[in-house]
Structure formats: structure tokens, C-alpha cells
């Protein structure tokens, strides 16, 4: 009898440990991208940007944010999905850092479970102007140019301006950050920049005012609510959609 009870206890313990382990692994996988996003953006708080010696503004990001990292190829596939929000940005982009809070606040308000995050630093092409000549520093990846082709109707021309104010055209389109693509039923609803308008005396590194926060909140709410409502409770592309 004691042996049977001991075996039963062992089985119960194994089951409990198994279930606990499953949820531990599941939650770890679920939160990996969210924590990575938080760490990347917060790592630049109060640091100096080498290119212009300006100090980055602080951002505070919840560890349970809805960010999921995607590659360029994955982002292209999402353009044909049933429902998706794609954010193109970078932690070093001052404009991106300033819109993080209103973006995440709206996503929480609308119960948005996933915002796909695309970084293009390793994929995009880059040019520079030297001695009055436009020079290409590096080519973009094949996937990057494919994405540009998909979004060409929504993008601005890629142009550079030298110190004398002369403009040089690269002949390419450009995704200027922070850029948001919203998709519904396999079609692009919107693809556009969403950033604040600077007030007098501000720079792109300045702390956001309450009015700027409210303006950005309204912009995100208007954009995101076109594909989500406050009644949505499922992750994008989930079966319940």
C-alpha cells in the first residue's frame, strides 16, 4: 500500500514539474522578443550618440510589450496576411524613441497582442555625399529591394542634402523611420511615417511634451483601430481572427 502511495506521489510530482516546465519554457519563448526590445531601447538611455554628440532621450518599456521581431522576408509575407501591424524602426533613431510610449499605450488599449518589428540596418542600402559627389556605400539586400517594390506607392524618394543645401537623388525609394504598415485581409491599409511635430526650441532628442504625446496617441489610435477594435482579444494571424 505504501509503495502504491509512493508511486502515486512520484507520478503527481512528475506531472506538476512537467506542466510547470512547459509553462516556463512557453513564457520564456513568448517574452524573448519583448525583453530584447526593452533592453535594446533602454540601453541607450542617457548615452551620447557618436554621430552628432547629442544625448538620447530616456524610454521606459514594459517587459510584457507586444513586440515580435521579423526579418525582411517575413515582413513581406505579412503583407498578405489577414491582420498585421509592422513597425519599421531602430533603437538609435530619436524619432522612433519618442513615439514608443504612445504606440504601446494604444496597443494595450486596443488589446493588440503582436506588433511586428523590423530593423533594416543590415539590409538597407546607404549613400553619402563626398566632395560634391554622391557615392553608394553599400547595396541593399535582395529582400530589401523586394520590400521597396512592394511599398513603392507609399514611400518617399531617397535623397541626400550636402552642407550647402544641394540635394542629390539616389534614384531609390526610402523607408523613413518610424514607419508603420497596417494590413488587413491580405491588403495594405496604410503604410506611413508616424512621428511627432517639433515645437519651437525642440530638437529630435528633446523630451516629448504632453501635447505631443496626445497627438501621437490619437494618430496611433486612428491608424491601429482601422484593423483592430477594443473588442479584439486574439493575436494577429491567430485562428480566432
Can you tell me the CATH superfamily?
A: Glutaredoxin
Tell me, briefly, the overall form.
Answer: globular
Q: Major sheet: size, sense and barrel closure?
A: 5 strands, mixed
Radius of gyration: 22 Å
Distance between the termini: 52 Å
How do the SSEs run, as a string of H and E? HEHEHEEEHEEEEH
The number of E-state strands comes to: 9
Q: Architecture in CATH?
A: 3-Layer(aba) Sandwich
* Major β-sheet strand ordering: 1-3-2-8-9
Low-confidence stretches: 233-241
Structural class: alpha/beta
Average residue pLDDT:
89
Q: Into which percentage range does the β-strand content fall?
A: 15-25%
Number of helices: 5
- Helical proportion, percent range: 25-40%
Number of domains: 1
Amino acid at each position: 500500500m505504501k509503495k502504491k502511495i509512493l508511486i502515486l506521489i512520484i507520478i503527481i510530482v512528475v506531472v506538476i514539474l512537467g506542466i510547470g516546465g512547459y509553462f516556463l519554457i512557453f513564457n520564456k519563448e513568448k517574452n524573448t522578443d519583448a525583453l530584447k526590445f526593452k533592453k535594446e531601447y533602454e540601453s541607450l538611455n542617457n548615452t551620447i550618440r557618436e554621430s552628432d554628440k547629442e544625448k538620447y532621450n530616456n524610454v521606459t518599456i514594459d517587459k510584457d510589450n507586444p513586440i515580435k521581431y521579423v526579418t525582411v522576408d517575413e515582413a513581406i509575407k505579412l503583407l498578405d496576411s489577414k491582420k498585421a501591424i509592422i513597425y519599421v524602426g531602430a533603437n538609435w533613431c530619436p524619432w522612433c524613441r519618442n513615439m514608443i510610449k504612445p504606440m504601446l499605450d494604444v496597443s494595450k488599449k486596443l488589446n493588440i497582442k503582436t506588433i511586428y518589428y523590423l530593423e533594416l540596418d543590415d539590409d538597407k542600402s546607404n549613400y553619402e555625399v563626398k566632395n560634391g559627389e554622391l557615392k553608394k556605400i553599400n547595396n541593399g539586400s535582395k529582400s530589401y529591394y523586394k520590400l521597396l517594390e512592394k511599398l513603392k506607392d507609399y514611400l518617399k524618394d531617397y535623397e541626400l542634402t550636402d552642407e550647402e543645401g544641394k540635394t542629390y537623388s539616389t534614384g531609390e525609394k526610402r523607408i523613413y523611420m518610424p514607419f508603420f504598415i497596417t494590413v488587413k485581409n491580405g491588403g495594405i491599409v496604410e503604410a506611413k511615417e508616424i512621428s511627432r511635430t517639433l515645437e519651437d526650441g525642440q530638437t529630435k532628442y528633446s523630451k516629448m511634451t504632453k501635447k505631443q504625446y496626445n497627438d501621437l496617441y490619437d494618430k496611433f489610435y486612428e491608424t491601429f483601430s482601422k484593423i483592430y477594435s477594443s473588442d479584439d482579444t486574439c493575436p494577429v494571424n491567430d485562428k480566432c481572427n
